[in-house]
Write a structure and sequence with these properties.
The chain is an alpha/beta fold. The protein contains 13 helices and 14 strands. The structure holds pyridoxal-5'-phosphate.
């Protein structure tokens, strides 16, 4: 394969060296470290394209890890933010736009009887777990291997593993910390299981339900392989939570506003007790929402459970959410995103096969995963070790060199501003890269 051309990134390299003197690791989020050949510096994004300081332009399928469902800098969102900012930034008080956003979310999201707004997905996950503990009086929660729920202490175990063996037995998996610095109580209060295994879940909940306040899950396992739930899995999980009085939390930080206006819960027809939204809700402006059943959310109304935040629901972010949702309500938007995503998945399958590569593409269209593997299906985190990650890394570097920006771990996002010409250009680049990288 041709050597990546690192002089393409000379200006980024210089800025990255400078950044390391003032930003830890040169970045402000762990995930931004993993870029080729080092973190790049970007100057602007417009539509489906993003440009770096070296003047390289990329067709963007990272969409900033998901938020940019309308692409970079959509005019209607920018105008709404400009107008709202001119009215004031934040009031430490209520305002009409926030009320309108809450009413809109209640009308769209099946589980949303009441809401609270925050800034990030991580914060709302934290609030959801606190609510579940308060409501049930139980100390622990159950999460699934490889799901990502943000970086806070309570969910910073069970996210990653060096290899499949490190995970231990399926029935009693090892809870692997993702970071140093976690309090010991995290291990005491967290149960972890492989996902998509209803029989195992049934057994575990039957044995341990008295300890469990909540089960938290991504409804589609976007963060590891973009794995859909097996038929009946979410329905079974819902029924078990009902049976044992456990709060069911859907982490819709990726799926929310990406798979449809009502999130995965509307699309898949399973309603959780609580759900967390972020990312695509405001096309890149920092706002998130905790939505849930009145019986649980009332604990916030009563002040029995505390959720707060100086910066919550500021004018510009709320306006961005309202404008984003208004744009997503246009009838042709989701059908187009799905069609383009499915076309791209199919095209990538064909291009890989033509070059002799075995790949697996899984996902819904608006977001999907490409992995090099001979498996026909990957249905849980343990099976994701079958993906040839170095090969995907080589593929994504090759794509970057041809002006297509991808997330290095295999997840792809499509926006409402990608066009058929962009899919054509991406497939042309992929055809070259598949041919360029060795089959084994
Ligand atoms: C499913 C899921 N939940 C929670 C989070 C955390 O959200 P945030 O990065 O806004 O804190 C993420 C972020 O990637 C996510 O993918």
């Amino acid at each position: 394969m041709s050597e990546p051309n690192s002089s393409r990134y000379a200006a980024s390299k210089e800025l990255f060296e400078r950044a390391q003197h003032v930003l830890a690791g040169g970045v402000s989020s762990e995930f931004r470290k993993f870029a080729h050949p080092h973190p790049l510096f970007f100057t602007r994004g417009a539509g489906a394209r993003i440009e770096d300081v070296d003047g390289n332009e990329y067709l963007d399928f990272t969409l900033s890890q998901g938020p940019l469902i309308l692409g970079h800098s959509p005019a209607s969102v920018l105008e709404a933010v400009r107008e709202a900012s001119a009215d004031g930034q934040i009031f430490a008080g209520q305002h009409l736009r926030e009320l309108e956003l809450a009413e809109k979310l209640v009308s769209l999201i099946p589980c949303a009887e009441l809401l609270r707004m925050s800034l990030s997905g991580s914060e709302c996950v934290h609030a959801a777990l606190r609510l579940a503990r308060a409501a049930t009086g139980r100390p622990k929660f159950l999460r699934f291997e490889g799901h990502y729920h943000g970086w806070y202490d309570n969910v910073a175990s069970g996210v990653a593993a060096a290899d499949e063996a490190a995970l231990g037995s399926r029935e009693n998996p090892n809870l692997i910390p993702w970071t140093e610095g976690l309090p010991a109580r995290v291990a005491e209060e967290t149960l972890v299981l492989p996902w998509n295994d209803l029989a195992l879940l049934e057994q575990t909940l039957s044995d341990r339900h008295e300890e469990l306040a909540a089960v938290i899950t991504e409804p589609v396992m976007c963060n590891s392989g973009c794995i859909p739930p097996k038929p009946g899995f979410l329905e079974g999980l819902r029924a078990l939570c009902d049976q044992y009085g456990i709060v069911l939390i859907f982490d819709e930080v990726i799926t929310g506003f990406r798979v449809g206006l009502g999130g995965a819960q509307a699309r898949l027809g399973v309603t959780p007790d609580l759900a967390v939204f972020g990312k695509a809700m405001a096309n890149g402006y920092p706002i998130s929402a905790l939505a849930g059943k009145r019986s649980l959310m009332d604990l916030l109304a009563q002040g029995r459970v505390i959720h707060a935040g100086t910066m919550n629901s500021g004018n510009p972010c709320v306006a961005a959410a309202l404008a984003t949702i208004a744009a997503l309500e246009e009838p042709d938007v989701y059908p187009r995103i799905y069609r383009l995503g499915e076309r791209l998945m199919q095209g990538l399958r064909q291009a890989a096969a033509a070059a002799g590569h075995e790949v697996l593409l899984q996902g819904l269209g608006p977001m999907f995963h490409l992995g090099f593997t001979s498996r026909e299906q990957v249905s849980e985190f343990r099976e994701t070790f079958a993906f040839d990650k170095p090969k995907y890394a080589a593929f994504s570097v090759g794509m970057q060199e041809r002006g297509v920006r991808l997330i290095g771990r295999g997840l792809w996002y499509i926006s409402a501003v990608h066009r058929d010409e962009d899919i054509d250009a991406c497939l042309a680049a992929a055809t070259e890269v598949f041919t360029d990288i060795p089959e084994q």
